[in-house]
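for ur thesis appendix - Endoplasmic reticulum-Golgi intermediate compartment protein. copy paste whatever u need, i formatted it the way the template wanted (i think)
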Amino acid sequence: MPAKSRFTRLDAFAKTVDEARIRTTSGGIITIASLLIVMWLVWGEWMDYRRVVVLPELVVDKSRGEKMEIHLNITFPRLPCELTTLDVMDVSGEQQVGVAHGVNKVRLASVAEGGRVLDVQALELHSAQEVAKHLDPDYCGECGGAPAPANAIKAGCCNTCDEVREAYAQQQWAFGKGPNIEQCEREGYAQRIDAQRREGCRLEGVVRVNKVVGNFHIAPGRSFSSGNVHVHDVANYLEAELPPAEQHTMTHIIHQLRFGPQLPDELSDRWQWTDHHHTNPLDSTRQETPEAGYSFMYFVKVVSTSYLPLGWDPLQSTSLHSASDSTPLGAHGLGQGSQGSIETHQYSVTSHKRSLRGGDASDEGHQERIHAANGIPGVFFNYDISPMKVINREARPKTFTGFLTGVCAIIGGTLTVAAAIDRTLYEGVNRVRKLHSN
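the 3d part is after this line
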């Protein structure tokens, strides 16, 4: 017999000789069942280790001087494109009146004709260069008694109907159809309005704004400022004695309205609570009214949101986001995998609507609510920027050492329970046999 080592008495796993071991059929069955259970539990532990969860954080938004993109797609079935104007303004004093970049007007046939697409043009329908190139180079049109606009093609002149309209707007004069205005008669401005009476219009595109409190609205007629008041020339929109089929209303369908880039479908599917309905609650909204003088107001609270994918590198992401101003805002990380984050926005919204004639809200079941009279017909979006920022960070809920610890616990626990069950069955069978033998 070999000499015992000094560590022998420290052995916590005392061995038994083979002659002292008893193997039973029940023990073999329990062993196989235990192995299957261990494999199943280890597989579940592995899947839990590989699982990716989203950990939301709420922090103070410390960004300054940023821009924000508004993606919109809105249809007006009873408002022709010739009368549609999009204006943007914010508390910093910046105004974008008659936005003409990044947004298209899509002329639509009347609802009775199926609302098919008739034409797609940039938001500024009247191309002054196209009209003016057919004129005599020495031609200098009158501005209807108003000073020529500063952005006129030819200084001191109004060579197009649109420049006359701009001159009238600067003087805060109503323009209507431009009667007795040579340029408008030459271009057929009144005929164009009458030809589009039954048409609808869809605005689609992107507007880049300052990331401060502001609003944008779609209203009929050219806009201008009267003192500190923003007004629209709605004479053509509210023209009396039009047949019912040609009367205009602010009925609208919001197909899409979002702030910042849309999350890829892959992320939306992975994070089910970030689908389009939750991040863009105004999508597929429809509002109808039979009245021309009606105003719809949406009050939007915008919350900056960052999505940090698994393995996100903050230094690499910062360099990507600051590399180019021409890249769509927040979209820098979309093509960079785990290296770049996605910067976008979520929003919540409440809405209000009222007739410009005033009166109460008895039609909505609120007779105690009194509507103010007068105002501008249109659809108004007032957005406010939350001072907080939501960071959604992808992470694994379990580390590799946690996975190994779980595997060890599964094996040890399963075998311990199996041994107890086997011991109980063995002792029970022996006791029954003794009773029968006696």
